[in-house]
Structures are given as C-alpha cells and as structure tokens.
Amino acid sequence: SRTSHIRNFSIIAHVDHGKSTLADRILENLGAMGERDKRDQTLDTLELERERGITIKSTPIRLQYTRADGEKYTFNLIDTPGHVDFNYEVSRSLAACEGVLLLVDASQGVEAQTIVNAYLAIDSNLEIIPVVNKIDLPAADPEGAAQELEDVIGIPAEDAVFASGKTGVGVPNILEAIVERIPPPAGDPDAPLKALIFDSFYDAYQGVILFIRVLEGTLKPKDKIMMFSNGKSFDVDKVGTFSPALVVGDELIAGSVGWVAASIKDIHDAQVGDTITGKENPTTEPFPGFKPAQPVVFSGLYPTDTEDYRKLREALEKLKLNDAAFSFEPETSEALGFGFRCGFLGLLHAEIIQERLEREYDLDLIATAPAVVYRVTLTNGEVFETQNPAEFPTRDRIQLVEEPYIKLSIMLPEDYVGTVMQLLQERRGVMQTMNYIGKRVELLYEVPFAEILYDFHDRLKSISRGYASMDYEQIGYRDGDLRKVDIMVNNEVIDALAVIVHETKTYGLGRKIVDKMAEVIPRQMFPVPVQAVIGGKIIARATVKAYRKDVLAKCYGGDITRKKKLLEKQKKGRARMKQFGTVEVPQEAFLAVLSTE
Ligand code: GDP
Ligand code: MG
C-alpha cells in the first residue's frame, strides 16, 4: 500500500532520561540537521522550553531513512510534552502514532513518568520499543534497567535496545527497530475523511495551523472540512508536512502526519483531540476520547500599575489566541483593583503564562495564590463552582463542599517508604496499592489535588534525597470539610489573600502564612499586625516590627555604586508591591501559602 513505508512514532520517557538528546541524535543520523542549524534540542522551540528543558508543544518532524538494502522509509517523529500538566496532549500525540520508543535512563531505571507514559502508550495500542539509554554513564546498569521494564510494565527485557543519545551508540539499532517492529499506518485513503488534531498554533497570516494525523481518507487544498465536536466548517487553504518547519504539500493521505491551514480564526474552534471530517461526506464516528480543554488551576493576575490594565487585557487575548487551554475573565478585588481570573492546566502552565506576560509584554504583575475549583452546594440547594477563595461562601450558607482529587503514583527506593507515607498522610492521601519492584516501591494514592499543588513535589524530592518521582491524573470530586481563611494586614482584610483549606489544617496554614508575611512585608515606622481569621475569629497573628534607625543608616552609608545598586533593587522591588494605606505588600506575600515550611 501507499503507506507501507511510513512509520509514525513518538519518544516517551521520564523527565531527564534523555528524550531530547536522543531525538537530536536521530535527526543527525538521518541528516536532518544541517551544520548551520545544528544546535542542542532542535525540537524544543519556544525560548521558555529551552530554558526550562521541557517540551510544551508537540513538535513533529518528518525524516527520511534509507535502509542498507536501499529501501526508503518516511519517519514521522512526534515529540510529546514532558509534564503532567499536559498529559492530555501527550495522549493525543500518542494517538497519532503506531509506536513509541520508551526510554529509560540506564543509571536510574524505571521512574513514575516511565510507568504513566508506558500505560498511555499501551492504552493507545501502540507498539513499544524499550530503549535503555545513557549506557555510556559509568553508573549505567543496562541489564538491570531492562529487567525493571519487564518486571514493572511487562515488556520483555530481551526486547530492549541499548543506546546512548550522547555518544550515538545504538542509534542505528533503534532506526532498524522502528522499521521492523512498528507497524505501518492502516487506513483507507478513499474512505470519508477522519483526522485527529493533536496540536495547533495560531499564525497571524494563515490563522490556526492544525497538526493532524489522517486516520482515514485524503485531505487536499480546497476541501471543505468540518470539526466533529461543534459542526463548524472551513475551506482548506494549504496542507503539508514538517521539516520541522512547515513545508507545503499536495495532499495528506490516510496514515500521514501533517498540518492544515483553513483560515480558522479562533483556536477554540479547533481543539486538540477533536476530529476533522469532510463537510459533504462526513465519517460516522469521531476519534474517541475528545475532551475540551479545561483549566483546573486558577489564579488572579493584577497589574501592579493600574494604568496597565488595558495592556494586560491585550496581552492575555494574544496568549489565548495560541492556547485553547488557557482562560481568563475580568475580576475585581477590593484590595488589588481590576484584574483577571486566569485558568490553567496546572502550576507549570500558570508559571509559563505569567513569565511570558512579564517577558514578552513587559508587564509587572501581582499573582494571587493558585487555587483549585471547588464545588459548593448551598443550604438552599443551589450548586456552583468557584475558583476564587475570595468568593467562597460563609459556613452557615454551605451544605456541602467538594474538591478535586487526583490519582498519584510515586516511585521510590524502599528506604524512604515510611517518610513518604507520612508526608502523604499529612496531605490527606488515601493509599490504594503498594507494589515492590526489586528494592523500589510504587505507591498509588488518592489525594486532594489542592494538597499537592504547591510544595508537594519539592517536599517529596527533599525527603527522598531526590530519588522519588511522581505523576498524577485527575479523578473527579470528593467531599471535603473545607474552610476559608482570611488574612488581615494592619487590621484590614485583604480579599485577594484568602485561601481555602481543610478544617484540620486551618491553624497550621494560618500560622505559616502570617509568619511568612511578617517576614516579607517591609518594615514601617510603626508595627504592623498580620492576622489569619476564620469567620471573624483570629487563629494566628504575627507582627511586622517597626524600623530600627541603625538599619537605615547602614543601608545608606558606603560607596556610590553600592548605593545605586540598592536604589535599583528597591525600584524593582517596588514594582512588584501593592500599597495598602501606608503598608506595602510584596508579591512574595501573596504567595506565602506556597512557601515551604
Ligand atoms: P529529556 O528531559 O528527557 O528531554 O532529557 P535531555 O535530553 O534534556 O537530557 C537530560 C540530561 O541528560 C542532559 O544533561 C543531557 O546532557 C543528559 N543526557 C542525555 N542523554 C545522555 C546520554 O546518552 N548519556 C549521558 N551521559 N548523558 C545524557
Ligand atoms: Mg526534553
């Protein structure tokens, strides 16, 4: 058939197990990296991605492989995001493939994301090629890592390919395994069109560019296409493939991976996971499992300078053009004025958006502590969802509160099981199962999402000396005895500082927040009280002490350059403060709830 020489695959791995390095080495082996654009980690394109070493967009690339016998193959390598915030995108990218390379670092063995990613691949019925990577490391134990894959996931150890993305050893074997083990795509080019959207981005000239996998049928310019989820139709302008730059082509047939431009103005009309079909002769069944993008973490974003409100709105609109998973709506805070309530897929997504607003749009922002979405049933029977702690009703009006839960999977050496279980208990986790894998353990817990949102990952890493790894998925809502804690500064409630917390934790958290705030609020001529309050009752109190004269004197002595530096630092610091009467509250104070104890 026309697709017998196509192989669509992805590389999946735990973070840092060498996915980007191996992808680059494969590109280099197949001559896809000219000396000119040869640089590390070609597939990680956004500046932020490169800096943080994560992949946010599912960049695909088309490669040509010629076997020793002269047979030519087309490889479509689809990169997947490397963070749990984007796991839905990972599953969609995998659905565009027939196989995966499952990498395991030969010195680390199987980690939490190795398992979760492997199951995503198994759920999509993909052929898995186990690759034990980084075998050049002195601490490598390739046989041990291969055996772990067999013990944990059931992939025969003898199937493993040993390789190093760094030295390139084993890469030719990987290329051969791709041809031999991954099946070519099936699908009838003459059937009605059915194509899966696995990523998209907004282009100012061509509108939304969709990254698609054609499952059935053929797609050409001038075709009329329709989105399965919402019935909206568009005329195809161009189709093509990836080099990884967009290359214009004549058509995309069943089995191929490529892009389509159809003058789509709104990215929300063409969401990841949706199915494209023909308007005239539509397919009967969409590709299963489509979920519209749904933010799960919310935070208020306010300009430190109220003059910047318009500028912030414009920046948010631009970012939203390119990101269907990001949402925002206007919000007013008594304390912070006019701003926006923004929705994200997780904390990393939130950080990325905030960083882009500050860097690319030159905005200074105050961000309120991220919160999950609570479902509240009032005593009058009314049910509503709230992501803003400031809006949380008082206790007498509440019949029931529910909060989102996750299934959390943790891999760790058995020595740390006791401490980690204790941490999970503190986080209201309920153990589901515990599996021994040699000297390591996999723990499966159900935990309130809010409990792992802030500092959980850092705490887990520190109590396990870096050895524990984790991954999670959302599993729906459960009852919770939750309360709203208000924070008062200088005897006034600052609405934007309110947090929702479990009944058993109100005192501890109140204490932590007021202590942190007292530490970061600049001193005044007079002492400033900071209090945590529940329903009018003070549960914790701290004081920002008044200045001592000698502190000032010390600051302003010294040489001129030091003085200048100090002034600059103060100017910068001021930009990220909010004035309440005479008291300035810095950004750090708004995130006091996130600080680790
Ligand atoms: P990713 O997070 O899975 O994309 O991992 P990267 O490709 O960014 O690699 C993570 C780290 O491991 C980097 O410091 C790489 O230089 C290093 N690394 C990747 N592959 C190898 C390898 O085969 N051998 C050795 N020694 N180091 C490697
Ligand atoms: Mg990477």
UniProtKB/TrEMBL annotation:
<comment type="similarity">
    <text>Belongs to the TRAFAC class translation factor GTPase superfamily. Classic translation factor GTPase family. LepA subfamily.</text>
</comment>
<dbReference type="InterPro" id="IPR031157">
    <property type="entry name" value="G_TR_CS"/>
</dbReference>
<dbReference type="InterPro" id="IPR000640">
    <property type="entry name" value="EFG_V-like"/>
</dbReference>
<keyword id="KW-0547">Nucleotide-binding</keyword>
<feature type="domain" description="Tr-type G">
    <location>
        <begin position="4"/>
        <end position="186"/>
    </location>
</feature>
<dbReference type="InterPro" id="IPR035654">
    <property type="entry name" value="LepA_IV"/>
</dbReference>
<dbReference type="InterPro" id="IPR009000">
    <property type="entry name" value="Transl_B-barrel_sf"/>
</dbReference>
<dbReference type="Pfam" id="PF00009">
    <property type="entry name" value="GTP_EFTU"/>
</dbReference>
<dbReference type="Pfam" id="PF03144">
    <property type="entry name" value="GTP_EFTU_D2"/>
</dbReference>
<dbReference type="InterPro" id="IPR006297">
    <property type="entry name" value="EF-4"/>
</dbReference>
<keyword id="KW-0472">Membrane</keyword>
<comment type="function">
    <text>Required for accurate and efficient protein synthesis under certain stress conditions. May act as a fidelity factor of the translation reaction, by catalyzing a one-codon backward translocation of tRNAs on improperly translocated ribosomes. Back-translocation proceeds from a post-translocation (POST) complex to a pre-translocation (PRE) complex, thus giving elongation factor G a second chance to translocate the tRNAs correctly. Binds to ribosomes in a GTP-dependent manner.</text>
</comment>
<keyword id="KW-0342">GTP-binding</keyword>
<dbReference type="Pfam" id="PF00679">
    <property type="entry name" value="EFG_C"/>
</dbReference>
<keyword id="KW-0648">Protein biosynthesis</keyword>
<keyword id="KW-0378">Hydrolase</keyword>
<feature type="binding site">
    <location>
        <begin position="133"/>
        <end position="136"/>
    </location>
    <ligand>
        <name>GTP</name>
    </ligand>
</feature>
<dbReference type="Pfam" id="PF06421">
    <property type="entry name" value="LepA_C"/>
</dbReference>
<dbReference type="InterPro" id="IPR035647">
    <property type="entry name" value="EFG_III/V"/>
</dbReference>
<dbReference type="InterPro" id="IPR027417">
    <property type="entry name" value="P-loop_NTPase"/>
</dbReference>
<keyword id="KW-1003">Cell membrane</keyword>
<dbReference type="Pfam" id="PF14492">
    <property type="entry name" value="EFG_III"/>
</dbReference>
<dbReference type="InterPro" id="IPR004161">
    <property type="entry name" value="EFTu-like_2"/>
</dbReference>
<keyword id="KW-0251">Elongation factor</keyword>
<dbReference type="InterPro" id="IPR038363">
    <property type="entry name" value="LepA_C_sf"/>
</dbReference>
<dbReference type="GO" id="GO:0003746">
    <property type="term" value="F:translation elongation factor activity"/>
</dbReference>
<protein>
    <recommendedName>
        <fullName>Elongation factor 4</fullName>
        <ecNumber>3.6.5.n1</ecNumber>
    </recommendedName>
</protein>
<dbReference type="InterPro" id="IPR041095">
    <property type="entry name" value="EFG_II"/>
</dbReference>
<dbReference type="InterPro" id="IPR013842">
    <property type="entry name" value="LepA_CTD"/>
</dbReference>
<dbReference type="InterPro" id="IPR000795">
    <property type="entry name" value="T_Tr_GTP-bd_dom"/>
</dbReference>
<dbReference type="InterPro" id="IPR005225">
    <property type="entry name" value="Small_GTP-bd"/>
</dbReference>
<feature type="binding site">
    <location>
        <begin position="16"/>
        <end position="21"/>
    </location>
    <ligand>
        <name>GTP</name>
    </ligand>
</feature>
